[in-house]
Fold:
Amino acid sequence: MTNRIFNFSAGPATLPVEVLEEARDAMLSLGNTGIGILEHSHRGKAFMEVRDQTEAVIRELGNIPSNYHVLFIQGGASLQFAMLPMNLLKQGETADYLITGSWAKLAAKEAKAFGTVHNACSSEDRNFCYIPKTCSFSSNPAYVHYTSNNTIFGTQFVAPPTVPAGVPLICDASSDIFSRPIDVSQHAMIYAGAQKNLGPAGVTLVIVRDDLVQRGPDNIPTMLRYKTFSENQSLYNTGPTFGMFLVGRVCEWIKRNGGLTAMAARNEAKAKVLYDFLEQSKLFKATADRDSRSLMNVTFVTGNAELDDKCIKEATKAGFDGLKGHRSVGGLRASIYNAFPPAGVDALVQFLREFEAKNS
Structure:
């Protein structure tokens, strides 16, 4: 593994090396079965044990109450943008969305096909560089939806928004799931694409309260009902078996390394190193407001697009990949999810110091 470089990609993203090594071995034989994880029947005993173990460690890490289902669904968070209102929003009803970035906008757009969408707040006036302090909710929302971390713009909610009593709170936690403790009971549903903090692309974790599952209508396609997944242990059809296996192994890695509290401390320390450098830099500047900055995605610029590009190219040659900002905003972005090593952040800061000295 001596040829591995520092991968700052926003997703698919860095995975723990020891988990990748486990996966490598399991691809040849899952335990002593003589059959690789990619080859096992999704209804066989060996894989059902994998599924059960994965759900068990997720429940343990997240302290998930018993009246919540843990589901594994394909289609990424983007499918949840539509599947959620399809199950929970009826014509004539209103859902409230907190518009804090591109993914929140896309989620709201999809919901408009099923009911009325009310923008409870928005930070688009300043190109999504902050998390709004207040919200204006509609009179009787079917649910309130927010995106906890905004990968493109480098902002993150410090805590869940406070919503009207009794209104279900839904969270797209795709890019900061299990990066810190989370109070599941504050939410009616949490969903997350796995490819940032949990595992590979191709599987989406959905944690959903039972009353929301039961609300889903029966006149929508079978594979778009939460009931279908809850009643069949996420295996109504052939599910993303390898993804489910790897999510379980990553969660076991988090558990071995101190759980969500330890992950939060690790992530805060990594981000502080990079933000502290940006605060004193005469060349680089963080783009997000200080009280809204993400611990997962650090976005920054030089203020000169050509110099940004030069920095990215030189960083790539130096062994730092994935630093180019999203195509819609430009600049640079360092994604430092759970598995990203602290040494990589230290090395990046040293590179940026040297680049600044040469180019100021």
